[in-house]
Amino acid sequence: MSKIKELAYKIVKARHDYYNVGPTVSDAIFDAWVDELSKLDPNHTAVTSVGAPVVSEWKKAKHYVPMGSLNKVNTEDEFRAWAKYCEQQSHSGTGPNSRNLNSRFFFTEKLDGVSINTIWEKGKLVQALTRGNGDVGEDITVNVARMKGVPKNLTEPFSGSVRGEIILLKSDNKKYFPEYTSPRNAASGIAKRLDGVGTEHLTVMMYTVNGKDFDTENQQFNWLAKVGFNIAAFSVYYYIQDAISQYKKYQSSLRDALDYDIDGIVIRIDNMSSQFALGEKNNRPVAQIAFKFEAPSATSKIIRFVDQVGNTGTITPVAEFDEVNLLGAKIKRASCYNYSYIKELGIDVGSEVLIIRANDVIPRVEELIKGTGSVHKPPKKCPECNSPTEFNGEYLRCTNKETCPAQVIGRLKTWVNEQNILEWGESILQKTIDAGLVKDVGDLYRLTAEQLEKLDRMGERSAQKLVDVLNEHRNISLENLIGGLGINGVGTSTTKVVVEAGYDTLDAMLVLTQDRLASLGGFGSIRAKALVNGLKTNKKRIEDILAAGVTIKPRVKGKLTGKSFCFTGSMEKPRPALQKMVEDAGGSVKKSVGKGLHYLVIADTNSASSKAEAAKKLGTTLISEQQFLDMI
User: Fold this and answer.
1) Which of 5, 10, 72, 110 is flagged as catalytic?
2) How far is CA 552 from the centre of its chain?
């Protein structure tokens, strides 16, 4: 299995664990994986996506404005490089050291909590969704309405969305939840309590508005405070060095004096028009960056190593050590990435090591302090299936690709995640494998409610619901079919590029050559080779999935095929309904203004707002809601 596929799996699994279970790999290692994959395949969905599919009993709902994430920097040099890049890409022609409105730096605290998106209609809260996988989140409105910082009525009749962070103040942590050592973990658990107990002691702080235009970030934050929201401290700087100096003050002393946790600073180009013009890179805004704090550390002694087998057969060594306390979190284990990393550090059982909590979140064995004269050896047999292991580059893998339980569950998880079948979590998938009911994707669609009823803790209603939800996902798009196979570097969004290029049937895709694929815009030779080889390897699997009753939806071709739309400001019809109209007519919806956008749908086509001006500079056509409806 290639390095691209392996990195993609590790990144997706780490995101799932972080959002649904708890951190299982260091933030530094996670960032290293993302950096490495972005160099090999910058448009891979594992690089461009955020969050993870939610696994809970809360009702799921789609974000009408996807909840993205920010790129990160960890050093002063990296921050300066970001500022220089913004300068080079800027349409203003001025540098970041100029006292120009376009180059001011907006500086605010990076809150360490749980991301939330709130929807407001005429000044009243109507919905609150967690980030989830960025497109679909959990509807925890009833809990958020009880939290501090969420007004019953805004001071003006605003309709749109406001994004923020659910946090637990240190004082409230000590007063109401002394059993928790990590305010961030406590906030995550309490916010999603089905009975809502304790949610009134959580606080929401806001930082981004959708549905209202502002000239600057400074103006946006002042408006948030004016209408009744809590906001983090902010300031504006003309020069890079001033922003860096303030960052250093926060790291050395200011952060400790706050009544809430922050894990860095967010710095943005203050001028909103410049932000929109700079656009996005890898699904993240170019004009905004998270400047992370240096990691806290402690020394400990390694007690043992545990080998974990990943979904693609990669064996990852995890070090267990004497418990340490970092920023209030009790830590006693950390991933060691791979056996090359262990060899590089020279560590073994009994080694004294430095443990860091990278980016204030996930533990990492950083360096050897005192060794034992030996290095931990890799296992010759797979811990899951006892099959032989072998090295593929720096990665140790199980050679039993077809029946190793860890790899079977990996294929199934990839499939259900790509189809967004949230009800089928890892636990139920594992039960069907253990019972001998499922060995591959096609087997899922052959399951009956009677078979599922016999599984542990499975009632008749639950069994039927699981079968019903699978039946709801029998008719899928071609891009979902191919994207769900787990082909190296090829997800649904990648396959969609091929489909939109006219290869919109399975037969047409199966005969595509590597050269033809590589010629498609934004595709590249690496992914072209991966897709061609992946389709050959998965031919029998595809045939089995189709034989199990899965069908491929014909591609929607309509009046808007080949056209992209972005909606901004207030509309007469609900924005989700307008977006669905676009998709039903064959068009695509973009979450923000950027290069390649065809139409910006806006209330006033003569608007001089920052978003409108950015769209005009990029050649995007501004149309009204009625003009859009006329196109439909």
Assistant:
1) 110
2) 27
